[in-house]
Design brief:
Oligomer: single chain
Structural class: alpha+beta
Radius of gyration: 69 Å
Number of helices: 14
Number of strands: 11
Shape: flat
Strand content: 5-15%
Amino acid sequence: MTIQMILIIVGVAVLLLALLFLTSYVKAPTDKVYIITGGGRPPKYLRGKAGLKIPFFQRLDKLSVQMLSVDVKTSQTIPTLDYINIDVDSVAVVKIGTTDALLAKASENFLNKDTAYINKMVVNVLEGNLREIIGSMNLRDIMNDRKTFAAKVQENAMADMQNMGLQIVTFNIQNIDDAGLGVIENLGIANTVAIRKDAEISKANAQKEIAVAQADANMAANAAEVASETAIAERDNELALKKAALQAQADTEKAKANAAGQIETQRQQKAINTEQVNADIARSEREAELKQKEVAVKEQELAASVKKQAEADKYAAQMKAEADLVRRQKEAEAQKYEQEKEAEAQKAKAEAARYSAEQEAAGVRAKGEAEAAAIQAKGEAEAEAMKKKAEAYKLYNGAAMAEMMIKIMPEMAKAIAEPISAIDKINIYGGSNGSDGNGASQISGITPAVIKQVFDTMSDVTGVNLSDIMKANTYDAKVNKNINVTGISGVDVKVDSEAVNPASDIVE
């Protein structure tokens, strides 16, 4: 077989399959039920969905599930439970049930039947049930409660309708007639008379209650008027008596008030004088207390200003130290970074010129050995110098140490005076007659006292009496050549007439 034949066969097969699908595919709307039967299978009911029907083996039937309105009228008069013949006109709305059981029964009874046939069957069933319910109720009950009457008919007919595959949607009574007997009209007249009678009775009762209430109201009004007039007379008498008593009481109280007023005036004047004296005493006490608080506040301000300046100096020193530390760190990081970059550049250069470096290796090695020898000689010389310096330090005696301490004393005095010079304002409390002396003299004596304390501390640390050394420049030392220096090398040194004048010569 050629390819063309194969393609033709495939195309024909596809076409056949498409035709088969089109002929077997069915889709039911929501107002109809498609019933697929045959092929040895149970019936399939489709409503609002699609399905497949095997061609030639299965059959497709359609059944409408739309609602039907059916007029149900009695064909002749029907006697009620109280033997009154009536005609009833009603309307029922029915439809085919949508469950499989109801659809199975409806397809057996109404498949391929028109709506006239369905109406006829529904009328026959409902008319029979209507007759049954009419015969079981009195005419008055039917007329007074038509809704219950219709519900009983619908409930009684439900089983028969389900056997046909139908459902009753609604059942309403339109008209009830007694075939010209006038019974229904008479029931209306009786009801009208009863209603009118009830209205007249209610009206008479209302009028009677109104009359009784009016009489009671008049009696109560008269009694209230008498009681009111009596109460008014009694109140007038009481008022007159109270006025007389109040007038007498007022006269008495007025006399008492006049006397009490004079007494109260004298008492108030006395109280005012007492309060004035107390106020003067309290004012004096407050002024004294205020002065004490002012002194305390000024003392606190002085202490706070000194403390604030000291804390500011401390903070500035800390910030400067931190800034120096950060600067040194940054410089070290920058130097390290430059060294790393330089090393990388040298490495790249070395790799690029590795061949020439190998040729010059011998010369470089010799140069390195010479530099190493030079560095070693320099280190040995520095070590020797350090050794000699250490030996020289060993020869230092107390006089040399005193000379070193004397050289740094100006710097120490300057450092001591700097915090005091930074004070902007000092408030001095206390007078020259106090036990502590003049306040200004105390401030001016701070620096010399501190210098003397440092001077004594240096003497205690070095073991050299620096006061004796300083006396070497005095008149007694220069003229009489008489000075003793203790603490130098652990012995006492006496300077005779050949001694040199300056104290620095003695130290040397």
